[in-house]
Structures are given as structure tokens and as C-alpha cells.
Amino acid sequence: MKIAALIPARYASTRLPAKLVQDLGGLSVIQRTYQSTVASEVFDEVWVVTDHPQIEAQILALGGKVVVSKKEHESGSDRIAEALQEVDADLIVNVQGDEPFQDAKTLRDLVSVFSNPAIQVASLMNVLDAGQVQNPNFVKVVVDENRRAIYFSRSPIPYNREGDNLSYWRHIGVYAYRREMLLSFTQWPKGYLEQVEVLEQLRLVEKGVSIQMVETIHQAIAIDTQEDLDRARVYLVANQVKL
After folding, report:
1. pLDDT per residue over 42-52, tens digit each?
2. In the predicted model, what is the mean pLDDT of residues 208-226?
3. Cys staple from 78: which of 73, 106, 199, 227, with CB 3.0 to 4.6 Å?
4. 121-127 and 211-215 as β-strands: parallel, antiparallel, unpaired?
């Protein structure tokens, strides 16, 4: 089975303009993401899928592989689905372009579940800090006894009626798909639940597609704001990250 990481890299961003090309210890954010994904040694190929020549040039400067999007896309999933016209792989992992410190063990654990031929889609989760449960920007997931997703929500789920000391699962938006499932998923119209919660994974839930959730203890740094970028710079120095 050939495994490829595809990193959607949209240039425009709202809270931190052009965040993917911001400097992070001598390389840009997207260059760090690309190099840490390659360094995981999980993938047969790593591609960056972008809409902008500056990102393309930065990845080519590292000797990397780039697909330039020909269309406008609403989501990273749509962007990487278009790229499959050029990428030949059986298993596709959507790596977030704004998470520069990818974790090899987490990525290995994610792709390993596909030894079960019944699994079509997998994603990541970790235990949510108690102070983040009410925050709608942290997506929650509930799972069955086999750790397959039952539902995703921006609201706290399950509802804690008795006020017990509960732990909640946070969904982390790294997905792995079998090729044909990704192509099918991105062709389906948005469902009702997806439109209400604004969570694209609910399209799969509404279609009855099982999503295998994989636990990770890795605390990814996602760069959305200047504060996130500053934190990533501190982390880089403190951990002597060298790529």
C-alpha cells in the first residue's frame, strides 16, 4: 500500500495574514511542516498542495513536491482531492499546513489502523483540557467502544447532566482516507448537520461512514494567530528542533 501525505497550503488567512510563509527559525511555517512530515519517515511521498507561487517556490527550494491548485476550494479536503489527479497513492493523509511540528509516532499510529481493510477513514483525538470544554473552537467527539466516531460537535458532548467529573475527547483535524473514499466524500453535497455545526466530517457521519479515531498524546501547535507563532518560536528554541 502506497502512502502519501498531502499538505493543503492556502496562502490567504484571516487572523494572521500569510501565516504559512511567516518566518519560524529561518524557515517558513509551511517549510517546517513539510520537513517534519518528511522526517517522520511514515510516507512514501509528501506533497504540498497550494494556491500561491510563494508557497510553491519555498517548497521547491527544499527539493519538495508541489501541486498547484487549479480551482478555488472551500476546504483542505477538496484541495487534496483535486491533487489526486497528479498523486498516485492508495492511502492519503491530510496533514495540516499550519502545524509545523509533526509527530512521527502519531502519524504511524494513524496509518497503522488501515491494516484493517474495513476502515476507510481515520482521524485523531486527545483528551481535552477541562478549561476548553465550553469553547466552540475546540471540537468534541464521542466514540463507541471500538473508538469509532458517533458524533462531532462544537458543544460539550456528552451533556454532563449529573455534574460528574468527566473527561472529553478533542478532535484533531488530521485525516487519513483510502483514495476512493476521499474522492467520493468530496463529491457529496453538504449535509444538514455539517451546515449547522460547520464541521465537514459530519458529512461522513450522515452518510454512515465509520471514522476510526486514534488517540494521541502529542500536543500540536497550530498557528492561527501571532500569539501562536510566538509560542512556536519559543518551542523551536526550547526543544532545539533541527530539520
Report:
1. 999 999 999 99
2. 94
3. 73
4. parallel
Alpha helices in the chain (DSSP H): 29-39, 53-61, 76-83, 104-112, 179-185, 192-197, 201-206, 226-238
3-class SS of residue 234: helix
CB atoms within 10 A of CB 156: 17
CB 173 within 8 A of CB 110: no
37, pLDDT greater than 90: yes
SS3 assignment, position 22:
coil
Closest CA to 99 of 18, 34, 165, 15: 34
- The DSSP output letter for 152 is E
Nearest-angstrom CA–CA distance, 164 and 192: 31
For residue 38, give the amino acid letter.
V
Beta carbons of 58 and 31 less than 8 angstroms apart: yes
Question: Residue 163 pLDDT > 60, yes or no?
Answer: yes
pLDDT at 72 over 80: no
- pLDDT for 71 beyond 80: no
Q: How far apart are CA 174 and CA 58, in angstroms?
A: 23
Length of the chain measured in residues: 243
The Cα 171–Cα 190 span in angstroms is 20
What's the rounded Cα separation, in Å, for the pair 235 and 243? 14
Residue 189 makes CB contacts below 8 A (sequence gap 6+) with none
Q: Which domains does the chain have, with CATH numbers?
A: 1-102+226-243 (3.90.550.10)
Three-class secondary structure of residue 153 per DSSP: strand
The single-letter code of the amino acid at 126 is N
User: Which sign does the torsion angle of CA 12, 176, 235, 54 carry?
Assistant: negative
